[in-house]
């Protein structure tokens, strides 16, 4: 990874900071753009994964749209220069002021997640004197085979309208005069590594679209969401996700005629291009004999391990001691769960060494907080260093 190449040069920067490999980001974008264009598929970047201005400017160069999950994300995308007609806006709880802003921007679609939301958007659109393009976010009740904290497509999830409720309320939905129901949106979860799950999704989408056709809906596009995972275990072995296999599965199993097919990737685009670089503050051994390495990063810079129990590969990038020692890596936050990993092998680690916490390009910076009044970390970009 990039941090290993730069090594001690990174000691010049105040830690902790996010290190972004711009060359890898561009290679990833080239891959997803090429593989999607083979089938005429449309790709949106899920800006919730990382909204760094410099990364967004690069993503925009590749003609990729944006998927937003809040009004502020939508505003960020508009201000960053993304075309409104390439923007979709989902989110289970949109505020009225956010919906008014979305209505005013004439975006590709507001993806609605309940019947009541459809009625509210219809009324707000009527007040604005507009007719608004809408996607129905349908909950497909599919087990995504991922961490239960980040699955979004099972029946009891807060996300989406149940398929049965859409069927029961079809006439009510079609009667909303200020809405154009133009799309269907599904998203079953994040960090999905078992690609056969997407086969199941396609098969269910085929049935949903056929039934909506029979009920008189005019669906122009199907948005299959994102969810394609990255290799947190061995990121060097798979720095770019297998977009070719993913799109081939969709091509072979999706049967919805000539409608547009859209995707929303976040982690798959930016996850591997980012690392969290942190400095060792102290070493100590607990009464039980556990060796702790205390670093100056914490759950405030990368909350995923504390929040989800997620794994990130960690490496000492400045130690010259070949001996490997088992350590538990902990952060500075005043929480017992502020642990990056336990009992991992690192080169002998001393105060002042730099550790790289890998695969931190997604849901690192965007989920950072100022708990304990920590500063928000800066970013360092590879093209400023190489």
Keywords:
eight-stranded parallel beta barrel; 12 helices; eight-stranded mixed sheet; alpha/beta; single chain; 386 residues; 29% helix; elongated
Write the layout of secondary structure elements.
Layout: H1 2-6, E1 17-20, H2 22-37, E2 42-46, H3 53-61, E3 65-68, H4 71-79, E4 87-89, H5 96-105, E5 109-112, H6 115-128, E6 132-139, E7 161-162, H7 163-168, H8 170-174, E8 179-185, H9 196-214, E9 221-223, H10 243-253, E10 260-265, H11 267-270, E11 274-285, E12 291-295, H12 304-308, E13 314-316, E14 324-330, E15 339-347, E16 354-357, E17 378-381
Parallel strand pairs: 1-17, 2-3, 2-10, 3-4, 4-5, 5-6, 6-7, 6-8, 8-9, 9-10, 12-14
Antiparallel strand pairs: 1-11, 11-12, 11-16, 13-16, 14-15
Helix pairs in contact: 4-5, 5-6, 9-10
């Amino acid at each position: 990874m990039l941090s290993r190449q730069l090594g001690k040069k990174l000691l010049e920067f105040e830690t902790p900071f996010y290190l972004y490999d711009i060359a890898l980001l561009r290679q990833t974008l080239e891959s997803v753009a090429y593989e999607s264009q083979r089938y005429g598929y449309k790709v949106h970047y899920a800006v919730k994964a990382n909204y760094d201005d410099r990364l967004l400017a690069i993503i925009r160069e590749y003609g990729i749209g944006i998927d937003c999950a809040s009004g502020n994300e939508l505003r960020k995308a508009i201000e960053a220069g993304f075309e409104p007609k390439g923007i979709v806006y989902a989110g289970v709880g949109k505020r009225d002021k956010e919906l008014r802003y979305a209505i005013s921007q004439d975006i590709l679609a507001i993806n609605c997640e309940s019947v009541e939301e459809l009625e509210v958007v219809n009324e707000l659109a009527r007040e604005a004197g507009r007719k608004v393009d809408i996607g129905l976010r349908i909950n497909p009740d599919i087990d995504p085979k991922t961490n239960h904290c980040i699955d979004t497509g099972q029946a009891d999830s807060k996300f989406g309208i149940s398929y049965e409720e859409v069927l029961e309320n079809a006439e009510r939905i079609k009667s909303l005069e200020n809405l154009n129901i133009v799309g269907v949106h599904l998203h079953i979860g994040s960090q999905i590594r078992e690609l056969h799950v997407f086969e199941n999704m396609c098969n269910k989408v085929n049935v949903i679209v056929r039934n909506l056709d029979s009920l008189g809906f005019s669906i122009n596009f199907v948005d299959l969401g994102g969810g394609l995972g990255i290799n947190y275990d061995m990121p060097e072995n798979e720095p770019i996700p297998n977009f070719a296999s993913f799109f081939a599965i969709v091509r072979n199993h999706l049967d919805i005629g000539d409608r547009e097919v859209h995707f929303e990737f976040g982690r798959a685009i930016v996850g591997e291009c980012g690392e969290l670089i942190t400095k060792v503050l102290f070493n100590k051994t607990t009464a039980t004999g556990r060796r702790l390495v205390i670093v100056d990063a914490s759950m405030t810079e990368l909350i995923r391990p504390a929040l989800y129990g997620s794994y990130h590969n960690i490496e000492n990038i400045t130690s010259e001691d070949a001996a490997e020692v088992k350590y538990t890596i902990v952060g500075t936050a005043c929480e017992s769960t502020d642990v990056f990993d336990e009992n991992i092998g690192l080169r002998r680690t001393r105060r002042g060494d730099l550790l790289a916490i890998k695969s931190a390009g997604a849901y690192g910076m965007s989920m950072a907080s100022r708990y304990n009044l920590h500063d928000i970390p800066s970013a360092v970009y590879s093209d400023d260093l190489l």
